[in-house]
Amino acid sequence: MTKTALVVGASGIVGSATTALLLEKGWRVLGLARRPVAQPGVEPVAADLQDAGATAAALRGHAPDAVFVTTWLRQPTEAENIRVNAGMVRNLLDGLAPGASAETPRHVALVTGLKHYLGPFEAYGKGTLPETPFRESQGRLPVDNFYYAQEDEVFAAARRDGFTWSVHRPHTVIGKAVGNAMNMGTTLAVYATLCRETDRPFRFPGSAAQWNGLTDMTDARQLAHQLLWAAETPAAADEAFNIVNGDVFRWSWMWGRIAEWFGLEPAPFDGTVTPLEDQMRGDDAVWRRIAERENLAEADLSRLASPWHTDADLGRPIEVVTDMGKSRQLGFLRYQATDAAFFDLFEKLRADRLIP
Q1: Domain co-membership, 11 together with 23
Q2: Minimal CB count within 10 Å: which of 27, 46, 172, 279?
Q3: Phi, psi of 344 (to 5 degrees)
C-alpha cells in the first residue's frame, strides 16, 4: 500500500529535498505550510501552526504514516524562539493525536541542527562547548535552546500517542529555496555574482579558525535520505542522529573551488573578518539591475541571500566537525562530496534563473 508523508515546511531547503525523495520512492506527500506553494506531486495543506484550532482543522481527516518537521520561525529572542517554535510542534502533534486525526502517525522526525551543541543564536559558540567532533552522546548545554524545547514536545507526544521518533542534526545545509532564513549556498552564489558584476574582490568573510580549521556541511538531499532511512529502519527508532556529507574540508580550499566555478580569483585572506552583511549592504539596487538585464526570476535580494546566517557560520571562532558514527553503525552509509553539492546547487540556481 502507498504510504503517506506529511512534510512540514515542504517548500524550504530541507522540505523540498525531502518531498522530492519521498515522491521518487512512491510516497503520497502532503505539504504543510502557512501559504503552500505549488509543488508537482505534493498535496497542499494550509495551516498556521501557531493557531492550534486552525491546525487541528487543517489536519482533520489526514492520516500520515510519517511526519517530517523541517521548519521553524525565527524570533528576536531565544525566549520567543522557544515559545513560538515549541508551540508550533505541540499544535502540530496535538492535531495528529488520537481523536483529532484519522490515525496517529507511525513515526515523527524532527530536524534541528548543530546549535544543539553550539548553543542558540544569543550564545552561539560561546562559553564551555563540547569537544569536536560533536557526538550525539554529548548532552544538552546548560542554556535555554528552542531545539531542546522542540525535542521535548516530540518526546511528550510520543509517550502519549505511541509513535516512534527521530531527531536529525545537520550542519549548515546546502540546498535550493527562495525566501529561506538560513541559506549559505545561495547567499554565496549571489555574493559571487555581485563580486563579478562590480569587480569587487571575492573575499572570505569569516574567521581564521574557519579558514584554517576542518569543517563539514550537509547537502539537503543527504539529510532527506537520512530522514527516510530513519522512518523505515526499526533500529533507528527513538534516536537522535548527526547528519553531514561524510567529507571534511578547510575553507582555505573550498573558497577557491567556489571562486573557480564563478570564474573569479579568490582574494587573499589576511585573517580579518569582513562580514557579508557589511560587504553586501546597499547591493539591492545592483541585484535588481542584474535581475532585469538577465531576466532572472527573483529581483529581491533579501529573498535569496541571508548574509547574517552565513556570517554566523563562517565567523565562528572554533573548529566545527561532526561525527556520523552512530547512524553509520546502524546502516546509513550514504556519502556526498561537499564541493559537488555546491556545484549541483549553483547549476540548479542557474537553470531556474535565480543567478545568471
Answers
A1: yes
A2: 46
A3: -60, -40
Give the amino acid at 340.
A
Check residue 266 and report its DSSP letter: B
Taking the C-alpha atoms of residue 104 and residue 65, their distance in angstroms, rounded to an integer, is 8
Task: Kindly calculate the radius of gyration of the chain based on its CA atoms and give it in whole angstroms.
Answer: 20
Same domain flag for 130 and 164: yes
| For residues 280-304, average pLDDT | 96
Q: Count how many residues are written for the chain.
A: 356
Q: 208 and 223: one domain?
A: no
CA distance readout (Å), 328 to 221, 235, 263, 341: 17, 12, 37, 20
Task: Indicate the number of domains in the chain.
Answer: 2
Residue with cell 555574482: 193
Q: How many Cα neighbours within 13 Å face the side chain of 310? A: 26
Q: What are phi and psi of 338, to 5 degrees?
A: -70, -40
103 — pLDDT class (breaks 50, 70, 90): confident
What's the rounded mean pLDDT across residues 29-50? Answer: 94
Query: Residue 332 domain-assigned?
Result: no
Task: Identify the domain containing residue 73 by its residue range.
Answer: 4-173+217-243
CA distance 314 to 292: 31
Band (pLDDT 50/70/90 cuts) for residue 102 is: low
Q: Which positions are catalytic?
A: 115, 147
In 148-223, the DSSP E strands lie at 164-170, 173-174, 214-215, 218-219
Whether residue 149 is found in the same domain as residue 59:
yes
Q: How far apart are CA 261 and CA 176, in angstroms?
A: 17
For residues 26 and 3, what is the distance between their CA atoms, to the nearest angstrom? 8
Q: Which of 251, 261, 277 is nearest to 350 (CA)?
A: 261
Start-to-end Cα distance in the chain = 44
Three cell numbers written together for 187: 547567499
**Do 106 and 56 belong to one domain?**
yes
Give the SS3 label for residue 6. Answer: strand
Is the Cβ–Cβ distance between 155 and 140 less than 8 Å? no
